[in-house]
Amino acid sequence: MVDVQLALKTVLQNPIDLGDELVPLEFAVGKILAEDIRSDRSLPPFNRVCMDGIAINHQAIRNGQKTFQIEKVIAAGDPEYTLLQVDHCVEIMTGAVLPKNTDTVIRYEDLGREKDGFTILAEIRQGANIHNKGTDFSKDEVLLKKHLKLKPVDINILASVGMATVMVKKMPTVALISSGNELIPVHLKPEDHQIRISNIHMLKARLTQLGIKSSDFHFKDEKTDIREKLLDIMKSYDVILMSGGVSKGKFDFIPGILDELGFNKLFHGVKQRPGKPMWFGRRDNNLVFAFPGNPVSSLACLHKYFIPWLNTCLKQDLPLKLKVKLAKDVDFKPDLHYFAQASLSIGNDGVNYATVSHGNGSGDIVNPSGMDGFVEFPRGSSRFLSGEIYNFIPFHPIYS
């Protein structure tokens, strides 16, 4: 049995190369860029008018002119125009190309309307209200760097440089496996000795939030059934996430079968609660994360180990550790690293406070619904005091 720090280190030392893929722009948000994105032209690509009004040559103002006759009306999308008489003006709209022979735009608010033109009513500096060509970025400039996780604002940039498809990192293919003769599909009515499969659906939902498509399978507690199905699954999936069958019960066959199939056990058992029986191993580019079958155990192991592993594969920094203060004292006597379910609230001091709710053990499916994540209590102490600061692992977006 290993401690939590060694277990996490071992997991992070076993990334796999997931490869790249092209995706349509509309499906790129949340994906990881696989290449630098460069501008295909300067932006703005022309001297762009920033306000509705008139474009003039400022020399006319310096010569004492105040009233300008309209020579042309230009809208956004019209081709570039050349002012023919420098004592005239072009009535122009936001987004239009600044006409040649003009260098200043005066907004309507600073103008008085005349029969055939406008009179200037305010002091106007040369170059006003113009977004000059290339001031946002130049042609061939790197706008988005490789390994960036794409946000909605980044999609705007991709569209502006013509990226109808985007090269991104592939996500792993994941098989979700439940095991146990007591489990039945969701749509069936259980007998008194049966329960519906639920953990896998929770894990699947979390993977969907991460942008991972997964397939789910169920194994009966029969060695032959498990071995045959695992052999087939290994051919089609990068990662196998298992819930159940890894403890030391008479029908917990998973560890032995994984050994028979050539998986290298990297650890089995972690000094933690919940999730103590977790198994992790590898065979070539196949990884197995085998979690205990209780829902809170699976939830804790997924967030402590699988998600950091995924970030490593995608060349992402590990998430910054969220620090919280305890709202109340917590007692926990076993010499284990404890993932305690907790809800968050913001105190009057602007700090996140965690209120621990142990629930009815790791099999309690209802308690996590009212929680925000896990407070991590390290081994070596049995009492944790109000106001002390600890790491917090959210299992859903906290603030949105």
Could you explain the architecture of this structure?
The chain is of the alpha/beta class and 400 residues long. It has four domains: 4-18 and 171-313, Molybdenum Cofactor Biosythetic Enzyme, Chain A, CATH 3.40.980.10; 20-43 and 136-169, Alpha-Beta Complex (Molybdopterin biosynthesis moea protein, domain 2), CATH 3.90.105.10; 48-131, Molybdopterin biosynthesis moea protein, domain 3 (Molybdopterin biosynthesis moeA protein, domain 3, Beta Complex), CATH 2.170.190.11; 322-394, Beta-clip (Beta Barrel), CATH 2.40.340. 18% of the residues lie in helices and 30% in strands. It has seven helices and 28 strands. The strands form eight sheets. The chain has a six-stranded mixed sheet, with no helix packed on it. It has a six-stranded mixed sheet with strand order 16-13-17-21-20-18, with helices on both faces. It has a five-stranded mixed barrel with strand order 22-25-24-26-28. A hairpin with a 5-residue loop joins strand 24 and strand 25. It is elongated and about 95 Å long. The model has no long low-confidence stretch (mean pLDDT 94).
